[in-house]
Amino acid sequence: MYIRGARVLVCGGGGFIGGHVVNRVLEAGAAFCRSVDVKPFEEWHQINPLAENLVLDLQLREACQEAVQGIDVVIQLAADMGGMGFIENNKALCMLSVLISTHMLIAARDAGVKRFFYSSSACVYNGEKQKSYHVVPLKETDAYPADPEDGYGWEKLFSERMCRHFQEDFGLETRIVRFHNVYGPYGTWTGGREKAPAAICRKVIEAKLSGKHEIEIWGDGRQTRSFMYIDDCTKGVIDILESEIREPINLGSRELVTVNDLVGIVESLAGIKLKRIYNLNAPTGVNGRNSDNTLLLKRLGWEPSITLREGMARTFAWIEGQMIAEAATRQLVVP
Predict the structure, then answer these.
(1) pTM of the prediction?
(2) What percentage of the chain exceeds 70 in pLDDT?
(3) In the annotation, is 144 catalytic?
(4) How many CB atoms lie within 10 A of CB 245?
(5) How many whole angstroms separate alpha carbon 325 and alpha carbon 29?
(6) 137: DSSP letter
(7) Each residue of 251-275: pLDDT tens digit?
């Protein structure tokens, strides 16, 4: 085991996935966990008081050198990213995340880090294989010939190759995981960087609270996706990091649903039915994407299993609590 008794660095620890990973690392018996993020502390999704929490800009090589001092295991989650609305309109910002991966790999190599975990994305997959709503689940080999999501996907694919070559050339043990649509409590749910599950929860709750029973859906609602609950994600991170899987591997649910299905689940959780207004000019990404977990099952004998309805129930309840609390706070503010 590599986590128990290890000194672990979580890059992007102030983010949604990062905050949950910090908690899981400490629960797994890490001797020490350093959590680093570029955001000021008041913007972190979670702060675990048992971790050493630092604000550093990991695009800078000097910050990476500082972050990795005394570390055995690096979990590199840091990236400038968000939902499809952000990714499609901020391609250069997404590409600049390559500085984080580059400088972290160099710093990890120089510091003698034992394992380097890199969080890639299903956005690396060839776009030609994702044009049908009835998508064939994507296998790890489907990343080539290369035609990833413009901007964000190219950065992820390039960073995957860097991990591979740092392993081959310098002996830095790397683990590469391709996340498929992670969601859950403590995630971004407003502001433009939120992903579909959180955005739909917010829209449905807004419709319920306002009495205006309609919802805008990006695209025609027939786009298909799989969504992985955060608890499955963090288990997969630890299991894959501690495995001997050296090639990139999928980590995602294979429960395929349409966006319309997702809206229906959230409507049922809210106990309402909404008029659906389709915005065909909004960013939608590929028509279909699903995770083929054959390799994951073969190598680990496990795959994400928390159902979408179960995970969405937990996520909906958390977002609803946040929105009600915010509304109450606004009412208490004296003009």
Answers:
(1) 0.95
(2) 98
(3) no
(4) 18
(5) 34
(6) P
(7) 999 999 999 999 999 999 999 999 9
Write the pLDDT tens digit of every residue in 134-183. 999 999 999 999 999 999 999 999 999 999 999 999 999 999 999 999 99
Give the chain's largest Cα–Cα span: 63
The pLDDT value recorded for residue 332 is 60
Tokens 């099952």 belong to residue: 297
Q: Report long-range pairs for 302-305 (Cβ below 8 Å, ≥24 apart).
A: 302/235, 302/236, 302/239, 303/253, 303/254, 304/228, 304/229, 304/232, 304/233, 304/236, 304/251, 304/252, 304/253, 305/232, 305/253
Answer yes or no: are the C-beta atoms of 68 and 108 closer than 8 Å. yes
User: What is the C-alpha end-to-end distance of the chain, expressed in Å?
Assistant: 57
Distance CA 254, CA 53 (A): 35
Q: For residue 183, which of 238, 113, 253, 245 has the smallest C-alpha distance?
A: 253
Domains of the chain are 7-183+230-251 (3.40.50.720), 196-225+256-290+307-328 (3.90.25.10)
**For the chain, what's the residue count?**
335
The amino acid sitting at 68 is V
Is 335's pLDDT higher than 70?
no
How many Cβ atoms sit within 10 Å of the Cβ of residue 247? 12
Catalytic residue among 2, 118, 125, 152: 152
**Cβ contact 13:36 at 8 Å:** yes
30-41, pLDDT tens digit by residue?
999 999 999 999
Q: What is the CA radius of gyration of the chain?
A: 20
Contact 6, 30 (CB under 8 A): yes
